[in-house]
């Protein structure tokens, strides 16, 4: 038989309402709607306490909420015999009412409370009835209801107390456990205990079953003894090993605890209450503190400085062994107030007063005084002490150190002594500045003459070239015994003198195109031995002194020979053709201190060449002018005054210097410093006259001066070559593309037009990598010459030149021409060339200059101005080498290099610096240093030293 329970409840005269698990109204019968003055559609879905509000802390609010909580917790029916609960009518008028309520749980499929059916009775009239004559309720019934209300209130208070006890029990910081019976079954356990042993199901289990890992540690036996004797047991710092997770490791805990027996009313022990604290962290902290104190004492005993500690009132309570070892005092004799005994008597009073003031104010103590050493000597020390404070800021003790500063004090004293000689140093510096000013003035004179020489040399050498070519061709048509041939020879000698004079001017002003290479100076001197002895005559003896292990020099061979011959002839003239002349050569390392006032030179290895004569010497007023252009002490017609100035210019242009030392009656010594080569010496190559020959190849000649072009073409034709000519680079490029069947390009360097000779040559060699090129020029400072040196790999012939010189250079160029290859092949043949260099320099002008030099070496350049920008660029791109300034505005170049080396272990790094040394260079490895100021040769050497660019290479096609 089935029943419609909703109809039954709807017909019931008593109010019923159905609530879900969130206490929202699901259904209500008519009686409930009538007694609460509500409509069903308004109630459905409403929260009961929202529709019938009450203060949660009021009596009615607490009673009703506690009843609902018991139903949800226990799943059983709960009764409220009397509950005062005000009800507001639909019009909003509130009336105090008394109810009797029954809350019945309706369980879901999972056994949990899904709904609560509330049955209420309005007992307001019964509860408030007092007169015996009232019809509906008598005083006795009302009294019963009031007693029920009182019991309900007492139960509510008891329930509140129980909940409060549970709250305290659960949240207590110390652990609390209740064990019942002789098997110590867990009845209650709080959260602190579970945190200590790990979350596990304990309630209802005997202790030995619940905590099996505790067996054998004595705790179960102790529980048995407490239960048997009824006497409490407590311990401090007891160790236990527990397994906080199943299968996990056992962990050590340290606890303070008490096992307190629990007795019934008859005094019989029925259980044990365990209460205690987990002090594991505290014990660990104590252990660490002891270890820290021991480490401090061990460290303090072994530190090079003296260490001591003092109590808050300033009395020393501990002194390290170093203080006793230093002073020779007996161990323990310096504690308390005895420490001033080892202070110098002159310093003692101030030291004590300063310490007393620090103790009184709590400020950091710092003082300097002398302490007696074990041998009786006194040494200066810097003594410092800092206070340590507790969490409230109260001073607890002092920790102090004594650091020896005797050496610094001595240095300060020496510095003070040096300051007393300030005037002497200023005077010396002024003299150095005057000397530097004189050198600067001389350099300016050289620059002025150089500019003049450069401007004149081009046109002058072109005129001489026309004359040379014309005279050479004219001589072919005249018999050797003809009187006209004598005149032609005389004219040719005049041309040669003019060429020599032009060359001397360019040499003095450092404008001559040098072609330096690695040579052995001994071979060079042997080569000119016959010439020297012929020039000196029979009355002169020459001694050559060279070491066995002589470094190679990086110089232009012909210019070096000319310079030495100049010096030898000057020495002969000084000695009037009689006596002994010495040429001494040795290896020299020149440090920064020897280069003061020499901004154009860098510290490093040099070859020192001394030409020493024993002539009458040179007076001081004359000695200061000997390197000046056109200065000479020889009679008119006996000298141009360009000999020594030429030597001076050659040495400077080569990266070295020329100096002279002389005293009247003591002879003269001229010293050349020439740079050392980084590669092995190459053999000298001089052409024998019998080797001079022409050929039948086709030559494209580019020359803007028509007369020079015609004269040069005539010489080439006379040598057997087929000659095509062009008047400027643009015309030559067009002609070369229209008729590419030629074997050699011969081009003047300085020519008018937008397209330079060098651009033309690069364009042609990009199209024809096997094309040889020979440059000719009377002055080519900028196009193919850098720092006065012809770019490595460039074939060059200076104007004016003879037919024989032209023949030799043309054959050299043709014979050295590479086989045709693709650009990719050329790259593969130069695997060590740095293709992309990252340049870091904060000075914009220097950075621009270095970028030009690097571009001239054939590299792609990326520029940065700071250390951080450099690091960012390295993160973002690939680079083959790093060139970095040491002094940068944000991060030092050495620090940047250290970080780069960590990320790029094999990257070559070149430091640019004004200092003599860069300590990090050796430590980091694969580093080179170039000292400012430097030129392309110095940078090329640095690349070569790292094995990434040979000194004979350049990145250009020629």
How would you explain this protein's 3D organization?
With 958 residues, the chain is α/β, with parallel strands linked by helices. The chain has six domains: 5-166, PAS domain (Beta-Lactamase, 2-Layer Sandwich); 172-283, PAS domain (Beta-Lactamase), CATH 3.30.450; 303-414, Beta-Lactamase, CATH 3.30.450.20; 515-675, Heat Shock Protein 90 (2-Layer Sandwich), CATH 3.30.565; 689-822, Response regulator (Rossmann fold), CATH 3.40.50; 831-945, 3-Layer(aba) Sandwich (Rossmann fold), CATH 3.40.50. The radius of gyration is 54 Å and the shape is elongated. It starts with a helix and ends in a 13-residue tail after the last helix.
Features:
958 residues, alpha/beta, Beta-Lactamase, 6 domains, 5-stranded antiparallel sheet, 41% helix
CATH superfamily placement of the largest domain: PAS domain
- Strand % is 15-25%
Care to count the β-strands?
Answer: 36
Termini separation? 116 Å
Which topology of the largest domain does CATH recognise?
Beta-Lactamase
What global shape is seen? elongated
Question: What is the domain total for the residues?
Answer: 6
Structural class: alpha/beta
* Oligomeric grouping of the chains: single chain
Domain PAC: 236-291, 365-417
EC number: 2.7.13.3
Organism: Sulfitobacter profundi
Keywords: Coiled coil, Phosphoprotein
């Amino acid at each position: 038989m089935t029943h419609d329970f909703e109809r039954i409840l709807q017909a019931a005269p008593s109010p019923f309402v159905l609530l879900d698990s969130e206490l929202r109204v699901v259904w209500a019968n008519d009686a409930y709607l009538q007694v609460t003055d509500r409509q069903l559609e308004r109630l459905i879905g409403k929260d009961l306490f929202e529709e019938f509000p009450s203060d949660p802390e009021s009596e009615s609010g607490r009673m009703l909420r506690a009843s609902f909580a018991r139903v949800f917790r226990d799943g059983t029916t709960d009764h409220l015999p009397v509950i005062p609960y005000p009800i507001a009518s639909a019009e909003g008028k509130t009336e105090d009412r008394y109810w009797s309520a029954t809350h019945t749980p309706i369980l879901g499929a999972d056994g949990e409370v899904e709904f609560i059916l509330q049955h209420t009775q309005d007992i307001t009239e019964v509860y408030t009835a007092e007169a015996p004559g009232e019809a509906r309720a008598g005083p006795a019934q009302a009294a019963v209801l009031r007693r029920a209300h009182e019991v309900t209130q007492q139960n509510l208070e008891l329930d509140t107390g129980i909940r409060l006890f549970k709250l305290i029990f659960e949240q207590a910081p110390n652990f609390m456990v209740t064990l019942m019976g002789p098997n110590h079954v867990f009845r209650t356990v709080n959260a602190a205990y579970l945190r200590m042993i790990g979350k596990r199901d304990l309630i209802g289990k005997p202790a030995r079953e619940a905590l099996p890992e505790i067996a054998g540690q004595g705790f179960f036996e102790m529980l048995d003894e407490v239960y048997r004797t009824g006497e409490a047991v407590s311990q401090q710092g007891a160790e236990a090993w527990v397994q906080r997770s199943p299968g996990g490791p056992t962990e050590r805990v340290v606890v303070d605890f008490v096992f307190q027996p629990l007795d019934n009313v008859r005094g019989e022990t029925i259980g044990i209450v365990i209460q205690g604290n987990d002090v594991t962290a505290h014990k660990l902290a104590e252990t660490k503190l002891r270890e820290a104190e021991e480490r401090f004492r061990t460290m303090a005993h072994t530190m090079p400085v003296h260490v001591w500690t003092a109590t808050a009132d300033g009395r020393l309570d501990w002194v390290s062994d170093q203080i006793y070892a230093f002073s020779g005092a007996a161990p323990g004799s310096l504690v308390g107030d005895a420490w001033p005994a080892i202070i110098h008597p002159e310093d003692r009073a101030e030291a004590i007063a300063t310490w007393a003031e620090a103790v009184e104010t709590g400020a950091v103590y710092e003082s300097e005084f002398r302490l007696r050493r074990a041998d009786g000597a006194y040494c200066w020390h810097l003594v410092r002490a800092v206070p340590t404070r507790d969490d409230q800021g109260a001073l607890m003790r002092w920790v102090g150190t004594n650091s020896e500063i005797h050496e610094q004090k001595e240095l300060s004293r020496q510095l003070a002594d040096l300051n007393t000689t300030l005037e002497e140093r200023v005077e010396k510096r002024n003299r150095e500045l005057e000397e530097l000013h004189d050198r600067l003035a001389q350099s300016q004179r050289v620059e002025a003459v150089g500019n003049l020489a450069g401007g004149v040399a081009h046109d002058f050498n072109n005129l001489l070239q026309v004359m040379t070519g014309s005279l050479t061709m004219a001589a072919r048509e005249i018999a050797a015994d003809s009187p006209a041939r004598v005149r032609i020879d005389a004219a040719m000698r005049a041309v040669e003198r003019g060429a020599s004079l032009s060359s001397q001017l360019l040499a003095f002003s450092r404008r001559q195109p040098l072609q330096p290479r690695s040579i052995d100076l001994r071979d060079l001197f042997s080569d000119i031995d016959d010439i020297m002895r012929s020039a000196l005559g029979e009355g002169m003896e020459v001694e050559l002194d060279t070491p066995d292990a002589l470094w190679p020099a990086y110089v232009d061979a012909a210019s070096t020979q000319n310079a030495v011959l100049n010096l030898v002839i000057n020495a002969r003239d000084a000695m009037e053709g009689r006596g002994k002349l010495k040429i001494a050569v040795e290896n020299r390392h020149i440090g920064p201190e020897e280069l003061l006032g020499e901004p154009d030179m860098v510290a490093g290895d040099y070859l020192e060449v001394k030409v020493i004569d024993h002539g009458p010497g040179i007076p001081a007023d004359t000695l200061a002018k000997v390197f000046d252009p056109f200065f000479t002490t020889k009679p008119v017609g006996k000298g141009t005054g360009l000999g020594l100035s030429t030597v001076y210019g050659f040495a400077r242009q080569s990266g070295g210097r020329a100096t002279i030392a002389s005293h009247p009656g003591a002879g003269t010594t001229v010293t050349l410093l020439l740079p050392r080569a980084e590669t092995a010496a190459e053999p000298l190559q001089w052409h024998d006259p019998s080797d001079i020959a022409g050929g039948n190849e086709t030559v494209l000649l580019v020359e803007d001066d028509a007369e020079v072009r015609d004269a040069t073409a005539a010489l080439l034709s006379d040598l057997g070559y087929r000659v095509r000519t062009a008047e400027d680079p643009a015309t030559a490029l067009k002609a070369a593309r229209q008729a590419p069947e030629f074997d050699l390009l011969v081009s003047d360097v300085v020519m008018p037009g937008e397209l330079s000779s060098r651009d033309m040559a690069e364009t042609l060699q990009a199209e024809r990598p096997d094309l040889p090129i020979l440059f000719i020029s009377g002055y080519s400072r900028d196009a193919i010459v850098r720092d006065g040196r012809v770019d490595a790999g460039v074939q060059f012939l200076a104007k004016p030149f003879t037919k024989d010189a032209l023949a030799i250079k043309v054959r050299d160029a043709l014979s050295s021409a590479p086989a045709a290859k693709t650009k990719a092949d050329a790259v593969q043949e130069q695997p060590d060339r740095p293709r992309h260099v990252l340049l870091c320099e904060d000075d914009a002008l220097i950075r621009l200059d270095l970028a030009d030099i690097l571009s001239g070496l054939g590299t792609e350049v990326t520029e940065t101005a700071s250390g951080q920008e450099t690091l960012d660029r390295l993160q973002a791109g690939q680079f083959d080498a790093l060139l970095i300034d040491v002094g940068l505005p944000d991060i030092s170049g050495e620090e940047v290099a250290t970080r780069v080396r960590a990320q790029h272990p094999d990257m070559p790094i070149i430091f640019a610096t004004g200092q003599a040394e860069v300590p990090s260079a050796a430590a980091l490895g694969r580093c080179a240093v170039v000292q400012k100021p430097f030129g392309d040769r110095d940078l090329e050497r640095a690349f070569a030293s790292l094995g990434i660019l040979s000194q004979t290479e350049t990145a250009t096609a020629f």
